[in-house]
Amino acid sequence: MSAQVNGRFYAKTSLPTEHGPFDLRVWRAADGKEHLALSVGALDGAEGLPVRVHSECLTGEVLSSLKCDCKAQLNAALTFIQRNGLGLVIYLRQEGRGIGLGNKIRAYELQAQGADTVDANRMLGFDDDLRRYDVAGEILSALNVRSVVLLTNNPAKIEGLRAAGVVVEERQPHKVGLNEVNAAYLQTKRARMGHLFDTLDTLPTDEEGEVIDQGHLERP
Ligand SMILES: [Zn+2]
User: Fold this and answer.
1) Nearest Cα to Cα of residue 118 among 212, 184, 209, 217
2) Ligand 1 center–CA 188 separation, angstroms
3) What number of other Cβ atoms are within 10 A of residue 8's Cβ?
4) CA of 218 to the centre of ligand 1 (A)
5) Structural domain that includes position 13
6) How many angstroms separate the most distant Cα atoms in the chain?
7) pTM to 2 decimals?
8) How many domains does the chain have?
9) Is residue 183 in some structural domain?
10) The domain spanning residue 75 has which CATH number?
């Protein structure tokens, strides 16, 4: 792996959590943003390392918002690497698919008026997904991780990481966090952003097998 490295590890400790103890590293990127690497086991020279690249979601992870599946996804990844005894979660500080917290909340209000997550971002003048994965490439390179098995449902994330020089051996499906409120949001991610969710097949469907629109549930 040969990503150009512009940031550096700034701090490291062992952090006890509800899931178990993690090696926690803080990565200070060239732009001053601080990202996290939470790991279990020896990473140096690892091949096929289970890795979750996770983008910050304050509303989901701190406030337990039901509008998305971020908290369940993060917790599932942390639990998995503890059980597995080896793995890494890279936690990137890019809220709201990269548009920032305030703009994410603006988008939520547009969704409350009927727009879906993709249209809401476009109405605010943003592309569908502004997340960048070059920082994750830098962190993996600095940790001397040779190749990864990515825990994700998002093909664009695999492409983004490969573009950043990461060797992705395979994708491990990461299907958790479905609830009544976020069903329409997850359906939008599948239909309009290419996410892979077999579990949506268990949602209510009409005679043709189409998932019944549950957009009204997103309204407060
Ligand atoms: Zn979220």
Assistant:
1) 184
2) 14
3) 12
4) 14
5) 8-94+131-177
6) 56
7) 0.78
8) 1
9) no
10) 3.40.50.10990
